[in-house]
């Protein structure tokens, strides 16, 4: 178990609320860190709709979700505070005024905690077919970090959303063969990427099988060699060459242990006061994870809640620091003249 240095504030979740909280903590001179289960920052924006435009973030007439995430990461990055990714929090300990967030491999101690866990920790939705289960990690990969690892291989991508089409497009020219399999002929992906993959299919470089699903995994010498696919309309099967399967079926989210920390809950959301207090001293909640009268689950409100939560937490950790941050346009931390 790796134990990290004690920081002032630990932020659970690197969605928009958590990323803005990380920036804000740095601006207030507090040490902070984000811990997130996903392999990339951005929460729902990165996992569910990276290619969609958002129209109601103040100051942006429209902004791609993935570009907003990049800007938030850049803004928070000014203060070189760590973002620990691929770390799902499974425990919370409290002793001698220190909270320790626990993951499968690491311990993250801090003086205060801000829960910005959105709708819970995301994990990739698994293939429902039992025949797939033994092959996870041995030919079936639901997270792709390095496309080059599939060079020269027959890749079968299962799904009809952005990730499925993005990978079908990006692996062209890298993989030896690409087959896209989807249960219907309706796709939930960016039209430009769908068009590019369909053009590749028309040119015979990619195979697209709509109304098909996985029926069986055909292996030899402990390696996947082919898949049997079932045509769900015609009730026929076909065999396709396959070395690697990439199920791109979206994500499931799970609030998990956060519901067991003795916080007041309403329909799996954490009830907070107008200062984002959870009722457990030293723990605040911001963003989609919290609720109060008039709550709106929006990025804009999440930003404001993060500012409120961080200012409260900073005052809690350093009582001589005011809650009110002053105006950033006057702050010495940005090279400006303090009021
Ligand atoms: C398709 C779609 C379109 C949308 N469009 C808009 C829009 O146009 N405008 C708008 O304002 N809002 C929009 N939203 C809503 C917006 O995305 C959310 O309000 C916003 O993402 C909430 O941010 P958050 O930081 O609170 O939570 P999230 O974005 O959900 O991030 C929470 C993070 O916490 C992590 N986490 C949770 N539990 C744990 C744990 N135990 N351990 C480690 N990490 C954990 C998760 O992995 C996740 O990364 C849209 C949502 C969807 C799904």
Summarize the structure in words.
- With 339 residues, the protein is α/β, with parallel strands linked by helices.
- The chain folds into two domains: 2-123 and 252-334, FAD/NAD(P)-binding domain (3-Layer(bba) Sandwich), CATH 3.50.50; 126-249, FAD/NAD(P)-binding domain (3-Layer(bba) Sandwich).
- Helices cover 21% and strands 29% of the residues.
- The chain is built from six helices and 22 strands.
- Helix 4 packs across helix 5 (191-202).
- The longest helix is centred in the last third of the chain and has 19 residues, at 299-317.
- It is elongated.
- The two termini are 45 Å apart.
- The chain binds flavin-adenine dinucleotide (FAD).
- Residues 12-18, 35-38, 43-45, 48-49, 54, 56, 88-89, 116-122, 256, 258, 287-289, 297-300, 302 line the site of flavin-adenine dinucleotide.
Write the layout of secondary structure elements.
Elements: E1 2-3, E2 7-12, H1 16-27, E3 32-35, H2 43-47, E4 53-54, E5 63-64, H3 65-77, E6 83-84, E7 91-95, E8 98-102, E9 106-115, E10 121-124, E11 154-158, H4 162-170, E12 177-182, H5 191-202, E13 206-210, E14 212-220, E15 223-231, E16 236-241, E17 244-247, E18 251-254, E19 265-266, E20 269-271, E21 283-285, E22 290-291, H6 299-317
Parallel strand pairs: 1-9, 2-3, 2-9, 3-6, 9-21, 11-12, 11-17, 12-13, 20-22
Antiparallel strand pairs: 4-5, 7-8, 8-9, 10-18, 14-15, 15-16, 19-20
Helix pairs in contact: 1-3, 1-6, 4-5
The structure holds flavin-adenine dinucleotide (FAD).
């Amino acid at each position: 178990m790796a134990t990290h240095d004690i920081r002032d504030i630990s932020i659970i979740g690197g969605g928009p609320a958590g990323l803005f909280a990380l920036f804000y903590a740095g601006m207030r001179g507090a040490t902070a860190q984000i811990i997130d289960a996903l392999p990339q920052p951005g929460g729902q924006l990165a996992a569910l709709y990276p290619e969609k435009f958002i129209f109601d973030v103040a100051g942006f007439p429209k902004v791609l979700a993935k570009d907003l995430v990049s800007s938030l990461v850049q803004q928070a990055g000014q203060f070189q505070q760590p973002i620990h990714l691929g770390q799902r929090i499974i425990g919370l300990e409290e002793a001698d005024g220190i909270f320790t967030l626990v993951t499968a491999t690491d311990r993250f101690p801090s003086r205060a905690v801000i829960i910005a866990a959105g709708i819970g920790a995301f994990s990739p939705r698994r293939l429902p077919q039992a025949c797939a289960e033994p092959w996870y990690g041995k030919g079936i990969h639901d997270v792709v970090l390095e496309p080059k690892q599939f060079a020269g291989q027959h890749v079968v991508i299962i799904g009809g959303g952005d990730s499925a089409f993005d990978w079908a497009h990006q692996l062209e020219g890298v993989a030896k063969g690409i087959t896209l399999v989807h249960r219907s002929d309706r796709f939930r992906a960016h039209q430009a990427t769908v068009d590019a993959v369909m053009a590749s299919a028309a040119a015979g470089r990619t195979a697209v099988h709509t109304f098909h699903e996985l029926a069986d995994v055909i292996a030899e010498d402990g390696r996947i060699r082919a898949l049997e696919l079932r045509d769900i309309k015609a009730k026929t099967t076909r065999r396709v060459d396959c070395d690697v399967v990439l199920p791109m079926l979206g994500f499931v989210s799970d609030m998990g242990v956060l519901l067991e920390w003795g916080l007041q809950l309403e329909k799996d959301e954490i009830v907070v006061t107008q200062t984002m207090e959870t009722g457990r001293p030293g723990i605040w909640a911001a963003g989609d994870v919290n609720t109060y009268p008039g709550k709106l689950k929006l990025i804009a409100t999440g930003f404001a809640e993060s500012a409120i939560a961080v200012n409260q937490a900073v005052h809690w950790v350093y009582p001589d620091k005011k809650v009110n941050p002053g105006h950033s346009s006057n702050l010495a931390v940005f090279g400006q003249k303090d009021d």
